[in-house]
């Protein structure tokens, strides 16, 4: 009986399975039958629309074939085949939209990746009207594409079935068409970040009764009347739940009518000029999302918020708040709180303690100093950012935070002053699992071993411990972090070798161990990291051969092994050109790499943008294939043993920044094709054996900052440059060549010049009188090197500060040859020494009060040192030795308090040496070869006999001139006196009548004086007698 029932049950189950399978088949067939291909008329309309667009990023590459319903961004009705959706949102907008809409879950590196997508967009001067053929379209999204400020298409107002319209970031201009009011079915409207006219009429908004989402961020809402129109939507669109008027420059008075929109769920007003919060904000009982970031608010959090207890997301970042009120715990539903970039100080406020619902807390960029012990009670936290504060203590260690916040995905504490005791070493096993994916403890003062609990966080994707003082070895338990993608421990004090276990982290994309004290060889296990994109092992003590296998690391685009002790030859397999086709940055400088560069290097690394191989032992010639690289911006082959001629095949890719071929064995002439590189900023060809007239084919290089061609055999004259030839040039170094002719006065037009070195050439003529026009050598010049006002390409205009610190120029200052590297941009030097210059030192040179070093030695200069040289207050080194200068040393030189080196030797100076300040520190060698100088530190005393000898035996030109002027002065005085004296006395002597008349006049004058005096004395005596009686 039981067996029979079992058989029946089995049969029933079998029948049921067969029935279900049949139903599933029918459903599948019906689904196939329900899908209809798109209509040909609509497909043709889309093809015409595509033809009107510039699609350089291939966003529409899938738009081919007969069925347009299968094209990317197209959605069709499965029954009718009509196109109902056209979504061409750019990848950048798609990537960033979650953050704009309040879903703040992106990691920082994800956010950075968004910006990498910025260049992917469609482009057109208008929207093709062929879209009108899509009469059943309900969803249209063109966000992020570029329409060149063209007017918004009027025909969009005729697409009456639209329910969703997004044109954000499309750069439309002009007025908004008023016929948008015809789109009465719209639920979603986003016109944010366009360039509409300020006087756009937006009355049409009141005709959209079904509107639920309205985004006018950064578009055109500038005045109260426009705001009032939107606010009246409370009547015409009662279902409106999302409103954004952000970044429109509105004030509080513009927004008073907002108090009637109490049904709003999400309100975004960030980036306006509110300065204060009105009391009516408390009426928003249903508000769940409120963004008031960057509104200039200050003081404590306003009490007006305390009744808005439904808020789940509150963004008050980028204001000036300094405290949280005690009632803040009433936000029981709060999940996202942004208080970054405010004025909070001290311990994190206790008002946050009872908001246990909070998941996202951003306290970035404040002045908090301590984390309280209760902080670990916020157990639901998913995101915590305490970066860029002044944290010096934590009542709960980092490990205790991780131990209690099991759901935490992101923890950022970078940029504080925390020490080793706050790392903690407790076991993290209290959590069943740890969700932590992103950990950033960089830029603190941790000085212990790497955290021992790091290996327990098995879900970690990004770890940044850089810029601390971590020591010891890299821990061996990292192999458990199988999800790790980014590992950065750069700029620490780590020792030991690179653990081979790192090769087990196969998901690694970025590995940075730079600037530590790691030694040993590069483990071959790193070749297992097939997803690796960036590898930086620079500035360590690693030795051995370079064992990077480019055939395995096919995704590697950034490789920096510089400043180690690596050796071997630079070889690349030509038979596998694809294996390093993604390489864009290669830096092997400051090693012991030998051999020659592969001739085909430019073909197997077609994306190469940075090739930095300086300070090695590389020989051979420069491959011509480098000339044709489309992305190359920096080429540094300096300080090697490269020989032969520089190829003359360089093309302008409009990305060039620097060419450094200095200190090699290069020969031949200066390649004229260098003048084609219109964006070039740095050119170093010094210390080679180049010859010929390099300036013969010179063209304008508007962005050139440094041109160093010193220590070569270049000949010819310095061309008369115009002001437009090198308008940005700041360093011109032609030292130790074979240049002749005079220094052209047009050189004075290089107003940005800060270093000018023409020494050790065959130049003649005089120093240009206009030399004082070099404004870059004055104290009024910008402290940092300015860039040209001309439009610069992106790679040049954003030249990083650190790049200047890598540039070096060798100059002679204070009698020594110095290699200026890190402070190059702070140095101001002029060196015209060791040539055949004649004439005097121009007085205008004293206008260059920013000069640190002036060297005019070993020429044939005559005349005096300019009297106003005391105005050159920045001067640290002054050398005019071995010339024919004369006269006295200007006393004003004693005002040069920064002067550390002075050489006036082997001239014809005379007279006393100035005293005081820096002149007390110079030794006699500074004045050698000037026998008629006197005073300390020379043994010659400034006595009378010395002066006589100095003016009789060796009278110089200036002394003779002074003596002649003195005699002429006395002669003129004598002639004047004789003429005046005998003109009067002689007349009276020989003319009797005049003599009698003169004596009568003298007698009359004497009588008048006597009578007048007697009368006044009598009056004074009478007044005094009367005054004495009154007193009595």
TrEMBL record:
GO cellular component annotations of the record: plasma membrane
Residue ranges of the TM segments: 967-990
Protein's cellular compartments: Cell membrane
Boundaries of every Disease resistance R13L4/SHOC-2-like LRR domain copy: 282-465
Entry keyword rRNA processing: no
Membrane topology annotation: Single-pass type I membrane protein
SMART domains per record: LRR_SD22 (SM00365), LRR_TYP (SM00369)
Gene3D superfamilies: Ribonuclease Inhibitor
Signal peptide: 1-28
UniProt keyword annotation of Glycoprotein present: yes
Domain Leucine-rich repeat-containing N-terminal plant-type, residue spans: 40-77
Superkingdom, natural source: Eukaryota
Pfam families listed in its UniProt record: LRR_1, LRR_14, LRR_8, LRRNT_2
InterPro entries from the UniProt entry: Leu-rich_rpt, Leu-rich_rpt_typical-subtyp, LRR_dom_sf, LRR_N_plant-typ, LRR_R13L4/SHOC2-like, RLP23-like
Keywords, alphabetical: Cell membrane, Glycoprotein, Leucine-rich repeat, Membrane, Receptor, Repeat, Signal, Transmembrane, Transmembrane helix
Family to which this protein belongs: Belongs to the RLP family.
Protein name per UniProt: Receptor-like protein EIX2
Organism of derivation: Arachis duranensis (Wild peanut)
Source organism phylogeny: Eukaryota, Viridiplantae, Streptophyta, Embryophyta, Tracheophyta
């Amino acid at each position: 009986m039981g067996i029979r029932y079992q058989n029946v049950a089995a049969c029933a189950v079998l029948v049921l399975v067969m029935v279900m399978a049949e139903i599933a088949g029918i459903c599948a067939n019906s689904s196939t039958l329900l899908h209809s291909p798109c209509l040909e008329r609509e497909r043709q309309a889309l093809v015409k629309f595509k033809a009107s667009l510039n699609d350089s990023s291939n966003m529409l590459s899938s738009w081919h074939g007969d069925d347009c319903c299968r094209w990317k961004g197209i959605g069709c009705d499965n029954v009718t085949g009509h196109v109902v959706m056209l979504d061409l949102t750019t990848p950048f907008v798609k990537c960033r939209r979650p953050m704009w809409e309040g879903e703040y879950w992106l990691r920082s590196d994800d956010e950075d990746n968004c910006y990498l997508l910025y260049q992917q967009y469609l482009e057109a001067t208008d929207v093709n009207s062929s879209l009108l053929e899509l009469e059943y379209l309900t969803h249209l999204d063109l966000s992020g594409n570029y329409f060149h400020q063209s007017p918004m298409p009027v025909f969009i107002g005729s697409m009456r079935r639209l329910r969703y319209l997004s044109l954000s970031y499309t750069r439309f201009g002009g007025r908004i068409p008023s016929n948008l009011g015809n789109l009465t079915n719209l639920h979603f409207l986003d016109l944010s970040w366009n360039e509409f006219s300020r006087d756009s009429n937006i009355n049409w908004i009141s005709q959209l009764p079904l509107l639920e989402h309205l985004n006018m961020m950064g578009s055109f809402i500038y005045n109260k009347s426009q705001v009032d129109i939107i606010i009246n939507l409370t009547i015409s669109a009662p279902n409106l739940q999302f409103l954004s008027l952000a970044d429109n420059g509105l004030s509080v008075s513009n927004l008073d009518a907002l108090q009637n929109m109490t049904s709003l769920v999400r309100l975004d007003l960030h980036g306006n000029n509110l300065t204060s919060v009105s009391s009516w904000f408390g009426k928003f009982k249903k508000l769940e999302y409120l963004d008031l970031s960057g509104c200039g608010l200050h003081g404590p959090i306003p009490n007006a918020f305390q009744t808005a207890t439904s808020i789940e997301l509150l963004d008050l970042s980028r204001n000036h708040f300094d405290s949280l009120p005690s009632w803040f715990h009433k936000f029981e539903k709060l999940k996202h709180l942004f208080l970054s970039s405010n004025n909070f100080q001290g311990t994190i406020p206790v008002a946050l303690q009872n908001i246990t619902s909070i998941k996202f807390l951003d306290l970035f960029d404040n002045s908090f100093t301590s984390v309280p012990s209760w902080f670990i009670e916020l157990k639901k936290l998913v995101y915590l950012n305490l970066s860029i504060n002044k944290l010096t203590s934590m009542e709960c260690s980092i490990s205790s935070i991780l131990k209690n916040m099991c759901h935490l995905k992101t923890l950022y504490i970078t940029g504080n002053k925390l020490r080793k005791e706050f790392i903690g070493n407790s076991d993290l096993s209290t959590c069943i699992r740890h969700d932590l994916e992103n950990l950033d403890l960089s830029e603190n003062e941790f000085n212990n071993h790497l955290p021992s609990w790091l290996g327990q966080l098995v879900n970690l994707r990004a770890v940044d411990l850089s810029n601390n003082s971590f020591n010891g070895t890299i821990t061996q338990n990292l192999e458990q972090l199988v999800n790790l993608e980014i590992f950065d421990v750069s700029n620490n004090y780590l020792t030991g070798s690179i653990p081979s276990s790192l090769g087990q982290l196969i998901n690694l994309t970025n590995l940075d161990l730079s600037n530590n004290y790691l030694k040993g060889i590069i483990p071959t296990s790193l070749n297992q990291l097939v997803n690796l994109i960036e590898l930086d092992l620079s500035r360590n003590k690693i030795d051995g051969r370079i064992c990077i296998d480019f055939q395995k690391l096919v995704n590697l685009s950034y490789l920096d092994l510089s400043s180690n002790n690596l050796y071997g030859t630079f070889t690349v397999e030509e038979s596998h050109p694809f294996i390093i086709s993604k390489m864009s940055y290669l830096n092997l400088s400051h090693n012991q790499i030998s051999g020659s560069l592969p001739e085909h290097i430019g073909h197997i690394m077609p994306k190469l943008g940075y090739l930095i191989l300086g300070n090695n032992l590389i020989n051979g010639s420069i491959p011509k294939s480098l000339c044709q690289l489309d992305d190359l911006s920096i080429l540094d082959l300096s300080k090697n043993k490269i020989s032969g001629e520089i190829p003359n095949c360089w093309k302008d890719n409009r990305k060039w920044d620097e060419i450094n071929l200095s200190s090699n064995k290069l020969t031949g002439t200066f390649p004229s094709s260098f003048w084609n590189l219109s964006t070039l900023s740095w050119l170093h060809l010094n210390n080679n054996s180049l010859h010929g007239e390099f300036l013969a084919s010179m063209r304008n290089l508007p962005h050139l900052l440094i041109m160093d061609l010193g220590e070569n055999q270049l000949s010819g004259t310095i061309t008369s440059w115009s002001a437009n030839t090198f308008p940005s040039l700041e360093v011109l170094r032609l030292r130790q060549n074979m240049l002749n002719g005079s220094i052209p006065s047009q050189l004075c037009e290089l107003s940005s010049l800060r270093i000018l070195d023409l020494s050790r050439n065959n130049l003649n003529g005089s120093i240009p009188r206009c030399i004082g026009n070099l404004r870059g050598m004055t104290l009024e010049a910008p402290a940092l090197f300015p860039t040209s006002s001309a439009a610069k390409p992106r790679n040049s205009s954003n030249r990083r500060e650190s790049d200047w610190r890598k540039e070096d120029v060798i100059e002679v200052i204070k009698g020594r040859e110095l290699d200026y590297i890190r402070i190059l941009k702070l140095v101001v030097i002029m060196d015209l020494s060791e040539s055949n210059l004649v004439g005097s030192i121009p007085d205008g040179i004293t206008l260059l009060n920013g000069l640190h070093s002036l060297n005019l030695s070993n020429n044939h200069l005559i005349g005096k040192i300019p009297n106003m040289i005391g105005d050159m207050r920045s001067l640290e080194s002054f050398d005019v030795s071995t010339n024919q200068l004369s006269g006295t040393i200007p006393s004003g030189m004693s005002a040069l308090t920064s002067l550390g080196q002075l050489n006036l030797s082997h001239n014809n100076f005379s007279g006393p040496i100035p005293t005081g300040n820096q002149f007390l520190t110079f030794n006699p060698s500074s004045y050698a070869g000037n026998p008629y100088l006197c005073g300390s530190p020379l043994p010659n005393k400034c006595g009378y006999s010395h002066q006589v000898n100095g003016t009789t035996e060796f009278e110089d030109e200036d002394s003779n001139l002074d003596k002649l002027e003195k005699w002429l002065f006395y002669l003129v005085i004598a002639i004047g006196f004789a003429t005046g004296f005998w003109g009067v006395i002689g007349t009276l002597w020989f003319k009797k009548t005049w003599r009698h008349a003169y004596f009568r006049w003298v007698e009359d004058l004497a009588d008048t004086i006597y009578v007048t005096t007697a009368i006044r004395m009598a009056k004074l005596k009478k007044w005094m007698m009367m005054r004495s009686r009154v007193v009595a």
